[in-house]
Amino acid sequence: MKDRLVLGLAHVAIAARAYPCPADLEEETVKRVSLTEIDDFLRGLTEHLRRAAVDEDGLAVPHAELDAAWRIYSKLMPGRPTATGQLAKSSTQRVIKEALDWLVSQGMAQPAPELGSGHYRLAHRFRLQVRETASMAAFTALCDIRRSQLVEEE
After folding, report:
1. For the range 62-71, what are the long-range contacts, defined as Cβ-Cβ under 8 Å and sequence gap of 24 or more?
2. Which of 28, 34, 83, 90 is the most buried (most CB within 10 A)?
């Protein structure tokens, strides 16, 4: 159950990181993502959600769609390598890699080793899939956070 929650969070984060605004879903440019970029985005997200989890009076504010997933994610190590050089199964980057590799197997992404280890190109097919599911509450919440990050970066 925990693994599926975190894997689902990784899939939604990949989509929100690549397509934070509705206009991005209409644009046909190829988006590129990396394990580190998605992990950093999710780590920032978990911190944001941790702060938002309580109101001014210190009372818990429910985030039913994301609460369990971000709490589990925040406890995992980022990219712990094993003795063989692979990412440890219990690391967040391994979960993100699993999500991206699944997208590759579905024809929705391609590895981009020329950009460095752990880089991927998201295919047009993935953009269309995201556009169809963009009304999900979790995706909307992550996109709101990503848009606020983009404003802060400017």
Report:
1. 63/141, 65/137, 65/138, 65/141, 66/9, 66/138, 66/141, 68/5, 69/5, 69/6, 69/8, 69/9, 70/9, 70/42, 70/45, 70/46, 71/46
2. 34
User: Six-digit token pair at 129?
Assistant: 């899939």
Amino acid letter for position 75: K
Answer whether 0.85 is exceeded by the pTM.
no
Give the pLDDT score at 100. Answer: 96
Q: 30: Cβ–Cβ under 8 A, 6 or more apart, which residues? A: 121, 122, 123, 124
Q: What are 32's two structure tokens?
A: 């590129």
**Residue from 37, 58, 69 nearest 141 by CA:** 69
Closest C-alpha to 96, from 123, 126, 66, 76? 76
Statement: residue 1 has pLDDT above 80? no
